[in-house]
Amino acid sequence: MLCGDSGGGLKFASRGSINGGTSGGTQTNNDIRSYTNVFIAPSGKVVIGNTLISNGNYPGNYKLYVQDGILTEHVRVAVKTTGDWSDDVFEAQYPLMNIYTLQQFITRYHHLPNIPSAADVVKNGIDLQQMDSKLLQKIEELTLYVIKQQKEIDALKKKTRKL
For residue range 101-135, what is the model confidence (pLDDT) as tens digits? Predict the structure, then answer.
């Protein structure tokens, strides 16, 4: 069933049973609201799922809301500028945190620097593009730590051979 609402929105609803199980009769606003599966708001926002529609809870300023999640084989996330990606880690002036300072941070806060805590993620969710960039940054930092360790190991091996 396709219905317009007084605010200019468009609702796609499955027809529910009315009057004790019959499918005939007039649908009330409450019937339509409870059976609405897709809603297109006048603002252009699209809502899939009736919980978000019935309570009007549209968090953030997004154009698409999907109740219960999305299953897809591929997702492509656009990145506006190179500044939105972690290419700076391998630059000479990158401030790689001292490993002992990193250890103190982890001990105190129980998460990596510049990565949100579990409580933050539960409260605010994550932006996939930003999180991918931050995770790449951490991988690149780990690579630098491993290279540094390997150089120290090689130097110690060389020193041990001389002895």
Answer: 999 999 999 999 999 999 999 998 999 999 999 99
Residues 87 and 155 in one domain: yes
Spatial distance between the Cα atoms of 43 and 26, rounded to a whole number of angstroms: 29
> Which residue in the block uniquely carries the two structure tokens 């001292």?
98
Task: Identify the pLDDT of residue 54.
Answer: 53
pLDDT digits (tens, 9 = 90+) for 90-108: 999 999 999 999 999 999 9
Residue given tokens 């790689």 in the structure block: 96
Cβ distance 102 to 54 under 8 Å? no
Both tokens of residue 54?
């019935």
Give the pair of three-digit tokens for residue 141: 């930092």
In a domain, 76, yes or no: no
- Mapped onto helix, strand or coil, the DSSP state of residue 79 is coil
Between CA 45 and CA 38 the distance in angstroms is 11
Q: How far is the C-alpha of 47 from the C-alpha of 54, rounded, in Å?
A: 11
Structural domain range at position 31: 2-66
Nearest to 14 by CA among 22, 27, 6: 27
